[in-house]
Specification:
Shape of chain A: globular
Number of helices of chain B: 3
CATH class of the largest domain in chain A: Alpha Beta
Largest interface: A-B, 75 and 50 residues
Shape of chain B: flat
Strand order of the largest sheet of chain B: 1-2
Strand content of chain B: under 5%
Number of domains of chain A: 2
Distance between the termini of chain A: 23 Å
Structural class of chain B: mainly alpha
CATH architecture of one domain in chain B: Orthogonal Bundle
Radius of gyration of chain A: 21 Å
Helix content of chain B: 25-40%
Oligomer: heterodimer
CATH topology of one domain in chain B: Histone, subunit A
Radius of gyration of chain B: 23 Å
Distance between the termini of chain B: 41 Å
CATH superfamily of the largest domain in chain A: Amidase signature (AS) domain
Order of helices and strands of chain B: HHHEE
Largest sheet of chain B: 2 strands, antiparallel
Number of strands of chain A: 11
CATH architecture of the largest domain in chain A: Alpha-Beta Complex
Strand content of chain A: 5-15%
Order of helices and strands of chain A: HHEHEHEHEHEEHHEHEHHHHEHHEEH
């Protein structure tokens, strides 16, 4: 029996009944990684020693009866999540050799929960991109078609889960970087409400938008992965202590739910096969007693522009820390300014450089009001439109990605085409709303994702409907992956 | 409001990036396309609209001022490209 295709919840039962040990489970995943990852290329670092140490610790917890939902469950982390003693690169040359001296909060909570760290997954450099093609090291492949992208920026985590190399993985979602790769790889991906999960130890890209989120092959697994890391953290003052009821979240209810369908997300930009699959999901929801109704949220059309001002502006400020002084790459020069310039130019790839330039420009004297101020005003209007919709609807539903997985290289030459990949996901980041993507079908063998969006801190409703919808859709099955 | 080559050079200087004329030329048209796409925001009626810099309403968080261990000096210096006598070492800043 292949352990690696099971849901984490099933692994939990087998660990608890001693059908399998934490070490056997860890080794099964390490073996699968060594067999498949040369083709998929999801991992930047596999930390085998740490994996086996974690597994031994987890087994002690299980034997002592003190286990939780993730004790002994293998997990992978996106390589922009700080892990003490395990290299954390952000898929950038500037951090290629960086071994952090501290543990980020998510990694720390997972360690305490007894989760078993397999390794660190590939991403677009500093999480800037939608395909993992902007990784400074290599491109991750989509497990459903190795000639296509897995999405991004958390493409490595999505591909690891979809290919059975990890039952649970974490990523970060700034403009869709968990949900879009989840959709393109056919797995479940969650962006929680901004403030639910600590960003301490998440390498900062755009601090007002970044949020850590989990991937899994079932909604239940994603709920457990969310619960393991959520909650207020003294190290991140933007985390909040809002109520969350895990048992309410686990009651699948569709009947009587009022679900809005933003018309802007089922029109022009959306590929026909995607809107077809999403409409089929809407029919399933209606048949199950959910009440769907179209709603217009015109500010969605301005989401990409708003996002591509705010995110690069914040990034240009956050990435100022890479100066060759305290950690990371240094290119030596005769004076400090030249050292910084040489270091940054050698260390950042072209996409990151471009975004730093955009961000610096929109924040510079004379342009600040024309761009940055306007983007924050647009953000206000967009958030209000969504909040207005949430007075009428329990949830909104939309495609996750306008297109299924595209071919490697297909969008690299067009600066706007790649950015439009996040058209459907950006609004939830702008407003801070929680959103989850599930697979709702396939087109020519490629997965298609549907996204549910709830009002801030309404994760219970989000999960409840996601579980009910998942029950109406075909279960996940691992793709066949041909290894050369 | 297309961005000129001189402006690009100035922005690169602000961002502490060395970009060759060739790189700046290549970047100019891409950046102008991106900036052009921002123009749609100018068509919105935004005057008087308040700014949202943070998506979730936040309040001041107060905490007791309790000393706790942070990174040790040696841990903090471990990843430094160059360190000496417990300090980060950098090239000359001024003569």
């Amino acid at each position: 029996m292949d352990l690696c295709g099971l849901a984490a919840a099933q692994m939990r039962r087998m660990l608890d009944s001693r059908e399998v040990s934490a070490e056997e489970l860890a080794r099964a995943h390490l073996d699968r990684i060594s067999r498949l990852d040369p083709a998929v290329r999801a991992f930047i670092t596999v930390c085998e020693d740490r994996t086996l140490t974690d597994a031994a610790e987890a087994q002690k917890q299980i034997d002592g009866g003190g286990q939780g939902a993730l004790t002994g469950i293998p997990v992978a982390l996106k390589d922009n999540m700080i892990t003490k003693g395990v290299r954390t690169t952000c898929a950038s040359r500037i951090l290629e050799k960086y071994v952090p001296p501290f543990e980020g909060t998510a990694a720390e909570r997972l360690r305490r929960a007894g989760a078993v760290l397999l390794g660190k997954t590939n991403l677009d450099e500093f999480a800037m991109g939608s395909s993992t093609e902007y990784s400074a090291f290599f491109t991750t492949r989509n497990p459903w078609d190795l000639e296509r992208v897995p999405g991004g920026s958390s493409g490595g985590s999505a591909a690891a889960v979809a290919s059975g190399m990890a039952p649970i993985a974490y990523g970060s979602d700034t403009g869709g970087s968990v949900r879009q790769p989840a959709a393109l790889c056919g797995v479940v991906g969650l962006k929680p409400t901004y403030g639910r999960i600590s960003r301490y130890g998440l390498v900062a890209f755009s601090s007002s938008l970044d949020q850590i989120g989990p991937f899994g092959r079932s909604v239940e697994d994603v709920i457990c992965a969310f619960e393991a890391v959520m909650g207020r953290d003294p190290h991140d003052s933007t985390t909040v202590d809002m109520p969350y009821d895990g048992s309410k979240a686990r009651e699948p209810v569709l009947k009587g739910r009022r679900i809005g369908v933003p018309s802007e997300l089922l029109s022009g930009e959306i590929a026909p096969d995607v809107s077809h699959a999403v409409r089929a999901a809407l029919d399933l929801i209606s048949d199950a007693g959910g009440e769907t109704e179209e709603v217009s949220l015109p500010m969605i059309e301005h989401g990409v522009a708003t996002y591509y001002i705010i995110a690069p502006a914040e990034a240009s400020s956050n990435l100022a820390r890479y100066d060759g002084v305290r950690y990371g790459l240094r290119i030596d020069a005769d004076d400090s300014i030249e050292m910084m310039k040489g270091t940054r130019s050698a260390g950042f790839g072209s996409e990151v450089t471009q975004r730093i330039m955009i961000g610096t420009y929109v924040l510079s004297a004379g342009y600040y009001d024309a761009f940055y101020t306007k983007a924050h005003q647009a953000r206000t209007i967009m958030k209000r439109q969504f909040q207005e919709a949430f007075r009428k609807f329990d949830l909104l539903i939309a495609p996750t990605s306008p297109v299924p997985a595209f071919r490697l290289g297909e969008r690299l030459d067009d600066p706007m085409a790649m950015k439009l990949a996040d058209f459907c996901t950006i609004p939830a980041n702008i407003g801070g709303f929680p959103a989850i993507s599930l697979n709702c079908g396939f087109s020519n063998g490629l997965p298609i994702g549907v996204q549910l969006i709830a009002d801030s801190f309404q994760e219970e409703t989000l999960f409840s409907v996601a579980l009910a919808l998942e029950n109406l859709l075909p279960p996940f099955a691992l793709p066949e992956i041909e290894v050369a | 409001m297309a961005i000129s080559l001189d402006e690009l050079k100035h922005v690169a200087e602000l961002a502490r990036l060395n970009l060759s004329n060739q790189e700046l030329n290549a970047m100019q048209s891409d950046l102008n396309r991106v900036l052009e796409s921002f123009r749609q925001l100018h068509e919105l009626r935004l005057s008087g609209v308040e700014l949202t810099s943070h998506s979730v309403d936040s309040t001041s968080v107060w905490g007791e001022d309790e000393p706790a261990d942070g990174l040790s000096r040696s841990d903090a210096l471990e990843a430094a490209p160059s360190a000496e006598a417990g300090l980060f070492l950098v090239p000359t800043i001024f003569e």
